[in-house]
Design a protein that fits this description.
Chain lengths: 54, 240
């Protein structure tokens, strides 16, 4: 089973990251990471030019 | 009264009639038109700085919310037996879950963008507050959704959550083990409050305008952001 399939599997116990008092599931960490990436892209990616009035 | 008076009076009849007839419907109409002129309520142009992807996440959040409400209505119509057993029911169940995921995903990015833009500037404090309370209300709505799935997952979550709620003294009033109570919170009370807050939030955005980024004040007009001959509202002023 690939790493991705293992991470997405719902049949086993969840995967967690421990960092001192912080404990977070890998799934939640991935979602937070995706939000940060999307936020940065939204700031940097140029917006398409609007149509000029006919 | 001369003929000329009658003519001029006939031309301006609606306005004096409004003023002279003290009805609550007329008062509401005048207040609504004064607070939300049609071109401000439904604008067809936006300032140049709105031409950025970060300004898109508010409407994406509303779009996701509409899918949440639509899929939730389908689940409510057919019931748990349907959405636990049939293929179409599974689809709508998943649609409800993933639209909620997207709703929070977009809302958090919208929140980050507005936070770093200090979007409460320019008399927009109430806009910020309604957004923040709507965010907290959404968490409550999602939470009650988790405990009314009517499966083992919801039982597990409810039994874990009751200890936290009992520890802060609201367990007797807000009983997560009472599925009927949680269901009514989830499908009636919280969506109602959330709906009112969202409408109020959008109306306030229309009234105060989209918050300008730092440094955008009094900048010279540039090319239009959206269709239109010139950017409207480029003279947004900070009124902090």
């Amino acid at each position: 089973m690939s790493v991705l399939a293992m991470a997405a599997s719902l049949t086993g116990p969840g995967h967690y990251v421990h960092w001192g008092v912080v404990q977070i599931s890998v799934a939640n960490l991935v979602v937070i990471g995706l939000m940060v990436i999307t936020f940065v892209i939204a700031l940097l990616l140029p917006f398409p030019k609007g149509r000029s009035k006919r | 009264m001369t003929t000329a008076d009658v003519r001029s009076g006939a031309q301006e009849l609606p306005e004096p009639a409004d003023e002279e007839t003290p009805t609550w419907t007329g008062w509401v109409r005048r207040r609504a038109l004064k607070s939300f002129p049609p071109d401000q309520l439904l604008p067809d142009r936006q300032p140049i700085y709105v031409a950025s992807w970060i300004y898109v996440f508010g409407v994406l959040t509303i779009g996701a919310l509409l899918v949440v409400l639509g899929s939730g209505a389908a689940l409510a119509l057919e019931g748990p037996t349907w959405y636990h057993t049939s293929n179409v029911g599974h689809f709508f169940n998943s649609l409800h879950l993933w639209s909620v995921e997207l709703f929070f995903f977009f809302m958090v990015i919208h929140l980050w963008g507005k936070f770093f833009m200090a979007a409460w500037r320019g008399k927009r404090a109430l806009t910020w507050i309604t957004g923040a309370v709507a965010f907290l209300g959404s968490i409550g709505t999602a939470f009650t959704g988790y405990v009314v799935q009517t499966n083992f997952d919801s039982q597990w979550i409810a039994t874990q959550a009751k200890d936290g709620l009992n520890s802060v003294g609201i367990g007797a009033w807000f009983n997560v083990l009472n599925t009927g109570q949680m269901l009514l919170w989830h499908v009636l009370l919280l969506p109602l409050v959330l709906g009112v807050l969202v409408v109020l939030h959008v109306l306030l955005v229309r009234k105060r305008g989209v918050v300008p980024p730092f440094g955008a004040i009094n900048e010279p007009a540039q090319t239009p952001a959206v269709a239109g001959p010139a950017p409207a509202h480029t003279d947004h002023e900070e009124q902090s």
